Amino acid sequence: MKHRVGVLISGRGSNMAALVAAARDPACPYEVAVVASDKADAAGLAHAAANGIPVFVGPPGKIAREASFDAIFRANGVDTIALAGYMRLLSDEFVARWRGSIVNIHPSLLPAYKGLDTHARAIAAGDAHGGCSVHVVTEELDGGAVLGQARVPILPGDTPDALAERVLAAEHLLYPKVLAEFVTR
Ligand SMILES: Nc1nc2c(c(=O)[nH]1)N[C@@H](CN(C=O)c1ccc(C(=O)N[C@@H](CCC(=O)O)C(=O)O)cc1)CN2
Ligand SMILES: NCC(=O)N[C@@H]1O[C@H](COP(=O)([O-])[O-])[C@@H](O)[C@H]1O
User: Fold this and answer.
1) Is 60 near ligand 1, meaning CB less than 6 Å away?
2) Which of 35, 117, 129, 156 is the most exposed place for a label (fewest CB within 10 A)?
3) Where is this site: Raises pKa of active site His (predicted)?
């Protein structure tokens, strides 16, 4: 039996698409069971639906939204939740209900640059490298155990957008690999 992953997105969903593409491999230990979002206009929902994956949009309000995510994930036999560009802070209650079963991809080399605007901050600091991290989700924003990382160079004259593009390519390789390792831990 493959592990069933519920993915949470808020927008474009390119990391979700990378997880879906990797799951096509018969040897992949997980399958994407449902893709949910806090945004009805999240572009990634159309990609998931086009790949035959059930999609769901949560109602407004954190409590109602999270209760609906919990219900749809349980109804679909989800055992692992993957945040992929989900831009809301999950409540302590939701994290506790899924303790140790939620992972997230973050566009920095954690513990450096938790939160937002990670690429601009790395460039402003004069760092030689940027990167991305997959971590376990806890109550502390971007504070959970790091499961895997990928480093990319910061080049002279780099803009945050140019660095973000280079890091995103690394994210799409890192996330499926680390998720597969995580579900079979
Ligand atoms: N309990 C947790 N929830 C979430 C985590 C986490 O580690 N623990 N990771 C984030 C993802 N994320 C970075 O990877 C992130 C998402 C959103 C924000 C943020 O600052 N958001 C806005 C709006 C917040 C809201 O509406 O809830 C803000 O606070 O202004 C920072 C980092 C996903 N959730
Ligand atoms: N703090 C969370 C965060 O910034 N996540 C980042 O948002 C982007 C989502 O892209 P996608 O929707 O194409 O996967 C990704 O770069 C991801 O690391």
Assistant:
1) no
2) 156
3) 142
How distant, in Å, are the alpha carbons of 53, 130, 150, 152 from that of 35?
A: 7, 28, 25, 29
Strand duo 129-136 + 146-153: pairing: antiparallel
Q: To 10 degrees, what angle do helices 160-183 and 14-23 make? A: 40
Q: Which CATH class is domain 3-183?
A: alpha beta
Q: Is 106 a catalytic residue?
A: yes
Residues 78-101 have pLDDT tens digits of 999 999 999 999 999 999 999 999
* Amino acid at residue number 160: P
133-162 pLDDT, tens per residue?
999 999 999 999 999 999 999 999 999 999
Q: What's the CA-to-centroid distance between 14 and ligand 2, angstroms? A: 8
CA of 29 to the centre of ligand 1 (A): 28
Q: What is the reported pTM?
A: 0.97
